[in-house]
UniProtKB/TrEMBL annotation:
Binds 2 Zn(2+) ions per subunit. Disulfide bonds join 106-114, 309-329. Pfam families: Peptidase_M2. Keywords: Carboxypeptidase, Disulfide bond, Glycoprotein, Hydrolase, Membrane, Metal-binding, Metalloprotease, Protease, Signal, Transmembrane, Transmembrane helix, Zinc. The active site is at residue 343. It comes from Penaeus vannamei (Whiteleg shrimp). Its EC number is 3.4.-.-. This is Angiotensin-converting enzyme. GO terms for biological process: proteolysis. One of its GO terms (cellular component) is plasma membrane.
Length: 472
């Protein structure tokens, strides 16, 4: 197992290095080819390791940790595809990421200016404009392609992702009080969690925001239906902070947006990352490494190349040695300040896990339900968005000639999304209950912060407990 663990780290590092070179310079076709080749090699290696691990009768192992390592290692997936399918799989995924990162649209007011990118141009329009048609133009000018296929041992990619959340009876007896969890049970748990959030808070918030937006766009917002997706201040209608000026109650109160203050006080990108590091070290977590500061790409303009602007934190799979980086097209504003803290939080997890076996350093793989067929993908996408988000296309139904899901980074990048639901309902309660155990009863009221936990800055002792937990 030690030899296999070392090889996993090596192969993963080769793949991550090639991928980093590509996602920080997406217009270089040679780097895209190299990243695809490295990804195919790594997936093939994982498929080989899964096949070999499956040959052992690990169900009878007496060592619980060794059993769990083999169960994870034996999970087949993309690596079990044939070489041609695997190469096509990675080629299409890379192509979607390139389209997402390099696609441009024309300015609504000047159709000769056709160099507007998603970040920062389109996002700025959606955040600041109140021109209905300009917002519609900005929303509808992004599209992509997608590739769905079953993976060995699973009905579809969603089933493969969801497997990471399952708990066998043996694992349940050892770690979770005897309660196993299969895929269907997990789906039911996630659905119940979302319904609790939706009925308890989201629908009420949605109704209030819809009412206020009807004043901004008279006669264009259905007073009882979904909100048109292009007027919520965000490409994906998921972050409504940019429309706070329209919908916040008590407008005479000070603004919660600190962007103006950041600019006034001379904040730059470096200070934003320094402040995030200060926060994490104040609660007993880890400072960023020299490699992090030397190799992260935090400013696309200074970098001078086109990168995948969707912010991401990357672990280069070196375990105790450690190589962690962030890639982000950072702007000096509050939204990006929050994102900086979010991404650095991932780095903190990477560093906490660094001494664990490679298979346990791999994050849990969330699920995307593979039940939507490619023949009705776009329509089903909007049906899902209306059911869960309460948003709709500005002009009614969208045809299958479009691929609107491709405008959401997680789709072209093949990144699962159920983690958001789990974070909101389950991890929120568990986390606050862990660092503030005396307040666990209050936590059962969703989104109610326990007394004494409004600020975590400098809260060393409770977060020291988190670090010990993460390190196994």
């Amino acid at each position: 197992m030690k030899e296999l663990d070392a090889r996993f780290s090596h192969e993963c590092n080769l793949e991550m290095t090639a991928r980093w070179d590509y996602i920080t310079d997406v217009t270089d076709p040679n780097k895209e080819d190299a990243a695809n080749d490295a990804a195919v090699r790594y997936l093939s290696f994982k498929g080989e390791a899964a096949a070999n691990s499956s040959l052992f009768g690990y169900e009878s192992f007496s060592d619980d940790e060794l059993y769990r390592r083999f169960r994870f290692l034996a999970k087949k997936g993309p690596g079990a595809l044939g070489q041609q399918d695997l190469e096509e799989y990675k080629l299409l995924q890379a192509g979607m990421e390139t389209i997402y990162s390099t696609a441009t649209i024309c300015d609504y007011h000047d159709d000769t200016q056709c160099d507007l990118t998603l970040e920062p141009d389109i996002e700025l329009i959606l955040a600041t404009s109140t021109n209905w048609e300009e917002l519609r133009h900005a929303l509808y000018s992004n599209s992509s392609i997608h590739f769905l296929l079953p993976l060995a041992g699973f009905d579809n990619t969603g089933s493969y992702w969801l497997n990471g959340y399952t708990v066998t009876q043996r694992e349940a007896d050892k770690y979770t009080g005897g309660q196993p969890l299969d895929q269907q049970q997990f789906k039911a748990m996630a659905e119940e969690a979302w319904q609790t959030v939706s009925e308890g808070l989201y629908k009420k918030l949605h109704s209030y925001v819809r009412m206020r937006l009807s004043d901004v766009y008279p006669g264009q917002v259905d007073p009882t239906g979904p909100i048109p997706a292009h007027i919520l201040g965000n490409m994906w209608a998921q972050d409504w902070s940019n429309i706070a000026r329209h919908v916040m109650p008590f407008p005479e109160m000070p603004s919660f947006d600190v962007t103006e203050s950041m600019v006034k006080n001379g904040w730059d990108i470096q200070r934003m990352f320094d402040s995030a590091e200060d926060f994490f070290t104040s609660i007993g977590l880890f400072p960023m490494t020299p490699t992090f500061w030397g190799k992260s790409v935090l400013n696309q303009t200074a970098w001078g190349r086109t990168i995948v602007c969707h912010a991401s934190a990357e672990d280069f799979c070196l375990g105790p040695t450690g190589d962690y980086r962030i890639k982000m097209c950072t702007e000096v504003n509050m939204v990006d300040l929050v994102t900086v803290h979010h991404e650095m939080g991932h780095i903190e997890y990477f560093m906490a896990y660094k001494n664990l076996p490679h298979v346990f350093r791999d994050s849990a793989n969330p699920v995307f339900d593979g039940s939507i067929g490619s023949e009705d993908l776009n329509g089903a996408w909007w049906q899902l968005r209306e059911a869960l988000q309460g948003v709709a296309p500005p002009d009614g139904a969208r045809g299958e000639e479009f691929f609107d899901p491709g405008a959401k980074y997680h789709v072209p990048a093949n990144v699962p999304y159920i983690r958001v639901v789990i974070l909101l309902r389950v991890c929120y309660i568990l986390f606050f209950g862990f660092v503030c155990p005396s307040s666990v009863v209050i936590l059962l009221r969703l989104f109610t912060l326990p007394s004494g936990c409004y600020s975590f800055f400098g809260s060393f002792i409770p977060f020291f407990r988190v670090v010990i937990l993460l390190q196994g």
